[in-house]
Specification:
Blueprint (H helix, E strand, L loop, with lengths): L2 E6 L5 H15 L3 E6 L5 H5 L3 E5 L13 H9 L7 E8 L5 H12 L3 E2 L4 E4 L4 H15 L2
Parallel strand pairs: 1-2, 1-3, 3-4, 4-5, 4-6
Bound molecules: flavin mononucleotide (FMN).
Flavin mononucleotide binds next to helix 1 and strand 4.
Length: about 140
Amino acid sequence: MKKLSVIYWSGTGNTQMMASAISKAASEEGLEVNVMSVDKADKNAVLDADIVAFGCPSMGAEQLEEAEMEPFISEIEQENIAGKPMALFGSYEWGDGQWMADWEDRMKKAGVNLIDKGLIIQSTPDNDGLERCEELGKKLASY
Ligand SMILES: Cc1cc2nc3c(=O)[nH]c(=O)nc-3n(C[C@H](O)[C@H](O)[C@H](O)COP(=O)(O)O)c2cc1C
């Protein structure tokens, strides 16, 4: 059974809702899913997984959350993650998704295999948003 790690930061729960929907769908499709907030994660949660999904909302000014997610991503970038299948997701409010475009570029430079475009959802995911999360979970499972 392939292992998926879903590692997220969420201040007000929107990105956490996305993480839960992605995890549930991936698990139903047969992946062994390990979902955790980034403060509970260490680099082995990434290195030991077959597939990784990272979630973080747009914070700062179109940036990753700086106290926990940014240091974790910086740490992971130093590791050998070339070829690792990965998906990115997160919630935003008023911006144009620039934080996600920048995050995708960073991960591509680290050599990861982004298996889909970063999934961004404005504010709290509605039913349509949750369906998009479930689709991503299924896509991860079919990878
Ligand atoms: C300090 C702070 C900075 C934010 N900066 C941005 C931003 O630059 N662009 C944007 O679209 N939304 C920004 N937001 C809005 C959040 O991305 C949005 O509320 C999101 O749904 C929060 O997700 P969460 O519930 O997972 O924490 C910011 C929110 C906070 C609290």
